[in-house]
Specification:
With 83 residues, the protein is an all-alpha fold. It has one domain (2-82). The chain contains three helices and no strands. It has helices at residues 2-28, 31-63, 66-82.
């Protein structure tokens, strides 16, 4: 039982030290700041997408109004009369 416990402790220590080295390298390269930058960029893109969706809704409402359709028909008739 003791050899298994010793192997387990050694394995745990090696794994933990490897994790600490990895985390130290992440902090040296600014991985935490990169995460916050990505979060800010994600939020900006969400806001831009929301704005564009609102613009599309407005354009759809303009195109589907009866006045616009009537204007298109009048223009089409005017063009056909000219030819």
């Amino acid at each position: 039982m003791e050899p298994v416990l010793i192997v387990g402790i050694i394995f745990g220590f090696v794994s933990f030290s490897a994790f600490l080295r990895f985390r130290t390298k992440q902090l040296e390269h600014g991985a935490d700041t990169m995460g916050s930058q990505l979060h800010k960029e994600n939020e900006q893109l969400r806001q831009k997408t929301e704005s564009l969706e609102q613009r599309v809704r407005v354009l759809e409402s303009i195109v589907t109004t009866k006045e616009y359709a009537l204007g298109q028909e009048i223009d089409a008739l005017a063009e056909s009369d000219q030819t």
